Amino acid sequence: MERAKVSSSQIRSVGYDARNQTLEVELSGGAVYQYDRVPADVHRRLVGATSLFSFFQDHIEDTYTQRRVR
Asked: Which domain covers residue 48, as residue numbers?
């Protein structure tokens, strides 16, 4: 999945596969996680958030099933 770089001290890049509703997040330390069944509006709100990491922690991290892919 292609990820776009984002302006965040904790998140390096974010990708989204709308067809499968899969969100991919690369953290600043290099770890990459995929989150399943994430609606497109949650992805849009994440990349538009003033603080990406706060939004990620509050609305994604413990809400959706995750797996580490790197």
From this structure: 4-68
